């Protein structure tokens, strides 16, 4: 479904990610991990269209969308949950969801909001609360719900667990895993390797703007790099 081939991504003349080859298949869940500064968020900006590719190509369903603007990529089914959530703090939960749903299909706004509330019952309870008054976990649910209100084919999440207590990110992570199991394609950038490997079936390890490891969860958890640097020597992911 999504394929980056020899992609180079950066800011102006500065290259952060070079010669990147990455794929996410239809109904597949894929993670992207690596140290700070490895180029993970830059990669997501390249995929979403916020940063143009300096070189290489990006295809979606076999069609070249390398030069397609971010708005048209979103219309094709690519939705992003940004790092830090970035909910509209002066809008209520319901209004946040309405903004996202109306951007894609005005005729199905109520239906899409109800789908999000069914997925995250806590948001239904807080639907009249302003986004800025929500807890970190509630804001993450809202950010994910806002993306899902667009009914995407590919859900991209940048740092799912950032700033959240373990019990909260495990709950939200389980919801994302259920979405992936239900056939939604997911691309997850995550510092918590164990969480990423529970949600996804395949992944990439970035370092210094390059892919240094790639494979299925089973393949990656057998490597010294994953065990020593990200799994704490604890062995198989549960």
UniProtKB/TrEMBL annotation:
A Pfam family this chain is assigned to: ABC_tran
Classification via Gene3D superfamilies: P-loop containing nucleotide triphosphate hydrolases (3.40.50.300)
Residue ranges occupied by any ABC transporter domain in the UniProt entry: 2-233
Xref: InterPro entries: AAA+_ATPase, ABC_transporter-like_ATP-bd, ABC_transporter-like_CS, BCAA_Transport_ATP-bd_LivF, P-loop_NTPase
GO MF annotations, alphabetized: ATP binding; ATP hydrolysis activity; branched-chain amino acid transmembrane transporter activity
One BP annotation, GO: L-amino acid transport
Entry superkingdom: Bacteria
Keywords of the record: Amino-acid transport, ATP-binding, Nucleotide-binding, Transport
Claim: Magnesium is one of the keywords in the record: no
Keyword Nucleotide-binding: yes
Assigned protein family: Belongs to the ABC transporter superfamily.
The protein, known as: ABC transporter ATP-binding protein
Organism in which the protein naturally occurs: Nocardioides immobilis
């Amino acid at each position: 479904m999504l394929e980056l081939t020899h992609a180079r991504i950066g800011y102006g003349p500065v290259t952060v990610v070079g010669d990147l080859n990455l794929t996410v298949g239809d109904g597949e869940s894929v993670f992207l991990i690596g140290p700070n500064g490895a180029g993970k968020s830059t990669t997501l900006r390249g995929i979403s269209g916020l940063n143009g590719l300096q070189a290489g190509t990006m295809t979606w369903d076999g069609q070249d969308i390398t030069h397609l603007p971010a708005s048209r990529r979103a219309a094709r089914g690519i939705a992003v949950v940004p790092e830090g959530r970035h909910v509209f703090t002066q809008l209520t939960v319901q209004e946040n969801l309405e903004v996202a749903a109306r951007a894609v299909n005005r005729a199905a706004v109520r239906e899409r909001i109800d789908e999000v509330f069914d997925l995250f019952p806590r948001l239904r309870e807080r639907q009249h609360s302003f986004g800025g008054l929500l807890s970190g976990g509630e804001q993450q649910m809202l950010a994910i719900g806002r993306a899902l209100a667009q009914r995407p084919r590919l859900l991209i999440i940048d740092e799912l667990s950032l700033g959240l207590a373990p019990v909260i990110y495990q709950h939200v992570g389980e919801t994302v895993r259920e979405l992936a199991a239900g056939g939604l394609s997911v691309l997850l950038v995550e510092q918590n390797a164990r969480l990423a490997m529970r949600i996804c079936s395949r992944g990439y390890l970035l370092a210094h703007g390059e892919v240094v490891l790639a494979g299925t969860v089973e393949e990656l958890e057998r490597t010294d790099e994953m065990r020593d640097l990200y799994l704490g020597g604890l062995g198989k992911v549960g």
